[in-house]
Amino acid sequence: MAKVIIAWCTCVLLSITLHAQTAKVIPSGRQLKEQGIKMGLPMENPMLQMMLADSLNKRSAIAPAKTYLRQNLPVVPDIGAGKYLQESARQEFFQFIGNSAGKQQLVQLQQSMNTIKDTARIRRYMEDKLRGFYALRDETGVNKLLGAGAYSNHLKEANASAFADNTPGVPMLGTSVTIADQLMIKNIPVNIGYSNISGQSTWSNPFADQSLVKFSFDKAAYVKRLNSIVEKKYDLKKYFLKDIDVRSAVKSFTRNRLEGIQQQLAGLGEQQSAAFSSLLNSDHIIQLDSIQLKNELLNNRVLGITAEDLEPAVAALQDSILLAYPLADSTLNSQLQHFRTASAARKYMAGVFALKKEVEEGLQAKSIISDGRVAEGKISGQLEEESSKIRNIKELLPLNGLQRLLLSAKQFDIGNIAASGSKGGVQDLFMSGLQTSFLNNNKFLMLGAGKRIDGGTIRDLTFNSSLDPGAYSMQFLQMGAGDISQPHSHAAVVNANTKSDSRRQYTTLTLPRNTFVGAFSEDISLGSYGRIAAQLSKSNNQFKNSATGNDPMVASKAAALSLFNDFWETLSVGLDYNGKVDEWNMSQRAYVSYSGLGYNNPASPGAGRGTIRYGLKLKRNWYKNKLVLGVRSDFQDISSSALTSSKWKNRQFAIDGRWKLNKKMAFDVRFNQSAMKSTGEKAASFQYMTRQLSLASQLQGKMATLPYNSNIMLGYQQIDILPQHSTLLNININHSLVISSHVLSMNLFYNKDIKGEAVYANLLTLETGWTYLVLKKISCSSGVTYLDNKAVVQQLGFRQTAGTSVLPRLNVNMYVDCRKNLLNTPQNYLFGNFRSELAISYQLN
Amino acid sequence: MLKFYQGVIFLMLFCTVQLHAQVTFVFIPELHGRTLDGLLQVKLANTGSQSQPVSLTIKVSAAGAGNIVSIKTPAFQLMPGTNSLPGGLIARSVIRFAENKAATVCRQSGYFTEGDYEYCFELNAGDQSHQGETLGDQCFDYYLQPFSPLLLLNPAEEDQICNKRPPFFWQPLLPAVPGVQYRLVLAELKPGQAKVEALNYNLPLLNQFGINAPMLFYPSLAKDLTQGKTYVWQVSAYKNDMLLVNSEIWEFTVYCEEESTPIVTESFRDITDLTKGNFYIARGKVLFAVDNVYDKVPLNYKIRCITKPELEMRKLPVVRLKRGANQVVIPLSENRSFVDGYYYLLELRLPNGEEKQLRFLYKSETE
């Protein structure tokens, strides 16, 4: 069975990869658009160049006379719009390059013009710079703008809190300080997260503390900061020449020339003149080809021109007749009139064809008019996209190497960080180290290295060893096409070595080994139907000083060298489909995965071994979310033996529904069942089974004239942990009543073990609260609490909270729950009778 | 049957047999027999009074598969009393795996699979004079069944719940090993944090050890969870001071819908201006401002449907006017007489006797 599923998985994976490859050959609309953007604006168009240069010439003429440095300014090459620039504008232009890109660049430009005669590159450079010059808004040196606020710091959030608790099995004291800060170093924003947690447990350990810190590059803030400088210095609409109306400029040019041609026609009757002037317009010249233009002429009834009239032989004959009869001749009058018209038409057409050629080849009128980028609204929309912002920043700001690199970086985290890549590679890994990822031209690269230690943290002070080897040093890499959160195809590798290490009381004594994981992940978009993610991962493990079988040589090999050893045992594959059907208001997920019994990925602590898992999730809503129904199931077969078919079989099933009658009434129903069964030679029985049904209502209403909120939950649960069978019935009522500006709240929870097999003895808790304001500033609540865990513990006490804003953004909150034990027994392992908390928080927002 | 196993386990736990030599081995197969690394957790109790160089050989075999693995340590100094294996020694040990499926899985994962195992420890003298002399040897038998994963149940992953004191349920760690307890950690997940970061960076709201059953009702002493916040939780199974298995980290959000009081963001225009405009879109409700110079009084109004005059109007909500400026809200979304896209006419008679008419288009609120 397992092999069939694996084979199926592999087939599907292969077919998906194949599909993805073929899909890549045909670029999508989005890709085409991106290519369009990359090609740049239609600066080659002479009309555009002329207009741009014209505008710059005018600007420099208007500007007050300035004295320019005449030293060593390079000559603007006579290419592109450069050839239309007047001297003063040229001077200003080079002044601009010097200011914005640095004097060094001017020297380089001069050199490259002298040595390389690569006009295409220089042309492109000049065009970009010219557009920048054209769009210049603020003449302040860019370095001055970059310098203002390049180093700054602002505290985003700071919290301090402390608690004391005497519940058995809970740390007795704990304090915590967390700080979130943003530091700007040379325009690079770095977020700093710091946390210090300290505490002490009653049961063993002395007072201990733990500090964690994380530095992360804030990409969004970086782009925002640089973009604001770009926008301060340049008018981006002008940069994209959005203010130049090329379309109407081309049209008016064509119209003027056409009128000139018409005026040159002489000796025609009034009727014919009128016919010629209305024969063609600028759109005809731009859009129609020469045959269509000719047809326009031939179809004009007033002119009455025939195809023969345009034949060269006929034309020559007609012209010679016209020469022979320069004056009107009554007998031939109508004939001569026709010849004159035909002659005019030939001249006219020759003029039109010349104009057509000029407009088409010289001005590229048709392409610029149909160019979507010139069309209304397109450019301003793109300005908002991050990729366009990054491109503008790269083109317009003089950045150093690191600043440039960071524009392609997605993430740069260093410190105690959570590292994550695609499934099968690195996932949910907490380590001290660094992780960075880049995305450039749709190519993705992620790199990381760090150390994972599973114990010795402040919350795990109790543990001094673990079943898993708890410490690794590792390096990982993931790369491929596409962003990780978007459809992509990536390959990843992880190399890990166990470490015999210790942190506080936690020590790992492990046999040294090297583990290598190679993985592929393919994420494919199914358009509106959702996404499908496929992953294939293979691990290999090599113990140091080890040998297999009768091999006399004891060796310490690198695991990467024999990655394909024990193939099926150390393979993990998975398919995960997530989708939506909007018409049905439905979302769905289906997944299937297999991992071999020897699969071992230290970079993905949650990855299972020897597991075949499949499941389904469906959620649908009706009547604008008033009725929501969800179903989910999860099946896992976890192999436990390499020799027999023994396994753990886990079956989970859940259904939940929510009915929102109106704004004041909503009902929930949930049912779930899960069972773990062991199959095999030694044991074949249900080891664990639970069924849970819960009903809940949320009501809002008025009691007399007082508004109230009421949540009621009823639960029925069957739990079989062999040999115990328990049935629990529980009720939770949460009721609050608003009395003028006060709230009276009551919370009742009661759990009864019907069968009395005491998985959890009968428990009653009752809490009340009354909120009020003291000294107009401090909001408080006071209440009475009661707890009864049958024959174990019985308590009565009070609870008090108080909170206030000492300063704007600075809040202080206090909480105390204090109880008297009316009954306490040695069986009490969960209920303390004192807890207090104090929290101070400063928040920028 | 289970009792039989418990009995066997009990015997193994407490009966470390005194052998002919001075050295006995303390080894708990149900914990340390599960992994290759666990074998090195064996403790050597030396009843002699002298220290001497020794080396340890560990051999593991399983019924049906034969030999699985053997580990031989280099020589080390055995001290009087209880000895743990020194860390540096472990790094230099030599491991030999057999060639069978169970050994392959062990070589790849470091875990032993299900089977009837025999773990044999042999301690030999490491000095020149007593080369190879056996100082102690001992075997332990144990039927090993690997642990099931520790699976969380409720609150379900990424669920949204209204209960601010939710109970937590998970599946027990199987097979049941006496003395296994659970620990539950609950921490807030701050925006932008990864789940593992939340567990490490934030002070846990709950960090309850010593839970015997696979469930925990929200502790009575703890503060309520906060509306709108997201939390992460994880359960660990442990025995004494040894961490056995961690569950996945799940998250849930506390959100009760009815608590959000509807905030009226639209402005209130004077009824006189509104009626002049003759076109008004009512999104779920009609809003207007009106001055009342008289005493408190219910607003006298009625609504007719223009699109479908025969449409029967259900009971309209009672609106009270107070003295002075009033911002009137007539909620219509709960009334089924109002149909999206229909035109209606609101006729009202103000306390000063003035009559107003407002034509409006009804649009149901978007959820």
UniProtKB/TrEMBL annotation, chain A:
Residues of the signal peptide: 1-20
Keyword list, A-Z: Signal
Protein name (Swiss-Prot/TrEMBL): Uncharacterized protein
The organism's place on the tree of life at top rank: Bacteria
From TrEMBL, chain B:
Lineage top rank: taxon: Bacteria
Protein name: DUF928 domain-containing protein
Record organism: Chitinophaga arvensicola
Lineage, uppermost ranks: Bacteria, Pseudomonadati, Bacteroidota, Chitinophagia, Chitinophagales
